[in-house]
Design brief:
- The protein has about 260 residues and is mainly α.
- The protein has one domain.
- It is about 70% helix and about 10% strand.
- It is built from eight helices and six strands.
- The strands form three sheets. A two-stranded antiparallel sheet has the order 1-2.
- The radius of gyration is 20 Å and the shape is elongated.
- The termini are far apart.
Amino acid sequence: MGHLDHAAFGWLTPALSYAMACTGSALGLRCTVRGLDATGRSRRNWLLTAASALGTGIWTMHFVAMLGFGVTGTEIRYNVPLTIFSLLIAMTVVGAGLFAVAYSRDRRRALVLGGLTAGFGIASMHYLGMAALRLHGQVHYDPALVALSVMIGVITATAALWAALSIRSPVAVAIASLVMGGAVSSMHYTGMMAVSVRVSPSSDALPGATAMQFIFPLAVGLGSYLFLTAAFVALSPMSGRAEASATARRPVEGVPR
């Protein structure tokens, strides 16, 4: 069995991946809140932005963490189309969960179905990303730890959707984002604990791209997208419905609370 190193650069990649997960979670929650306060086309657009933010944040977290992943005795490459497909899966399935919650009349049922859908989407992204690995050897998984990682993904997604329905205060959203970032990171590293590799030494060239050739520039690009979108959301005006709600909660001068 090859020795697996999950933090080849020390705490740098775990810390950066956690920061990406928190950023994506914060932006996704904030956009979902704005979407629930909006109607019509505006609601749809906010939810699409939320799905792209959450999916991008989760994907970026995974592959920034994978920058620190190494296996003794073999190089590692990534299948480019499968890696990109894992990103699309993350955004699409998380988006399906968000839309289920936003447009359903039975919020409790939608929360359960949306959490399951989005949770399996997170797990699918992770294991599709792992399927994109190319190395000299065979990758094996511990079924119990795989099941645990999927369960963490479902719980994380359900908690995120519940937070979007229940939380309005920016401070509460920030706290929820830190918790969600930790949960997404826990799902990733639980899934990585399930991995073992039986190395088959070979001098043959591996297909695919190295992490620095492909994953690093893409992760930087997606991280930049998250921060630019966060700036857009922060500067965009509230919808009339949300503004009216905020005004109703604001104390009026001269009137006792």
